[in-house]
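Tutorial, part two.
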Amino acid sequence: MFIKSIKNIKILPRWVIIFLDLFIISFSCFLAYLLRFNFSLIDLVQSNFIRGISLSTFFGLVAILITSSYKGIIRYTGLQDGVRIVNMVFLNAVLSSVANLIYHYNFNNNLIPYSVIIIGFLSSSLLLFNYRLLVKYFFSYYKNLVFKRSRVMIYGAGQTGIITRHVIDSSPRTQTIGFFENDKNKVGKVLDGIKIYRASYEEMERLFREIGVDEVVITVRDISLEVKNELVDLCIKNQVKIRTIPPVDKWVKGELSLNQIKEINIEDLLGREAINLDKQSVKADLRGRKVLITGAAGSIGSELVRQVIQYEPQSLILVDQAESDLYAIEREIKEMNFDVKVTLYLADITNKERISSIFQFHQPNVVFHAAAYKHVPMMESNPAEAILCNILGTKLLADLSVAHRVSKFVMVSTDKAVNPTNVMGCSKRIAEIYVQSYSNFLADKKNATAFVTTRFGNVLGSNGSVIPMFKKQIQNGGPITVTHPDVTRYFMTIPEACQLVLEAGTMGKGGEIFIFDMGRAIRIADLAKKMVHLSGLEPGRDIEIIYTGLREGEKLYEELLNKNENTIPTHHSKIMIAKVKEYTYEDVNKYIDLFHDLVYDNNELKMVALMKELVPEYKSSYSRYEILDKN
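Running the prediction step on this input gives:
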């Protein structure tokens, strides 16, 4: 019954706190009189102590109201409350002294001895703060009995770790029981009342097992991805929840709160170490230039906009056919407040008259071509659209770039163009072939457009990425659908991919196909299981994982090079140049003309057969077009 009443207790009204504070001020003044007169009651009465206590209490009320020392919630008393109490007691002493001086000037006598004022100041400061701490610890003790508190270890015993500890311990449902730390000088010591342990795999696993850790909170900002992944895997293995805090500059009003301590996102584990970008070279390449970006409202295109605008181009020309997304990027740009002229066009890159007028009006210097159809199953069902957008749209942009003397044309391609097994991948490979052959054809001409291609894998958070789909499926209670237990994919963050696109675009001289270091391939089934674990659930028990079979044109694994290709290193460790089979511009152009004739023919087999003829390594997988490979 008592514990239940503790749970339901309300915050004390402010008048009660004022009354308690005045009682302690009165008692402190009485205690000061006893000490001043050596506990002699006769001397106490002769000094008119009732008048002195009344005076001190009255000025105490005035000081309380002026300093608002009564506004703090006692059970959450902290340093700021202590400062307010000292200010209030000091003001009380000052007011009492001033009253004393005025009375002495007029009547040649003191209302209250100065020694009593000093002793009362010291004793009331001590008692007022300590009674608050007593109430705070009383509540803390009984909350531990009432609530089952999660036992939290903090990874990182620095200043941020200390702040996090106080935030965690302010909650009735969590308590900090220790720190993990890599610094040998700190290990074994006690920080803020709790012990610091060595952040080794063996030590952490031992503590998880022996002292019953429920949760780990990462506070270290420069922790490597490898260490972070190992820590997450260890926590998952031992059924320990893991969370992290945001960077200091993201704290609300400069303060960390409990609701800002979030679960680790899968994106935090799939990214990689920071890229060292040659920003000066990129800036020299883009500053003061007119830059056109196609697909500017898409996941890659919009990030290119965010990054390019920082390099002070003369103007940005943004083209996309997605109305709502284009409006969203326009709003975002306005909030950036960059002194760059930005023009947006709602346009289809296959519309020759529309795109020609844009080139004619703006005369861009640099083109980043990110517009494309990318969904494999959708393009497998609609090959004419893949040809129209990815091949003929690219050709139109490339031809207009040459006609209008664009200095550099950077095309965003995909790893699905390597040994393609689907229409989408093959259409992108043909686009690669066209711009590379065109660049080689123009190589001897003065001031010719330099065509550069960048090729990379899946980007985290892009439209159609599996991660948003898995998150939604987990939120809905499952099941998670994975195509095949062995399917693997490369992943890269959108900002990282766009940084590498800019770097490759800057270093490209024309005709190169740059490939990016994508790290190691990730099994999608493992990714799904880890996402379930990070959500605090158990795969197979709370969330089912169902294998649906590979979709039309889908590969088990992606490649960045085909078996006949190798690479040439560049000055950037994450960027290489692919040595690929090259085609003559005349031959490729003949095929492109045939695609023009076939795209409105409605004969999909003819279209795909022509694609296979131009790209012999294109072998359909799990697709109705496999019949063409047999023939």
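The first helix runs from residue 2 to 8. In part three we will examine how such features are distributed along the chain.
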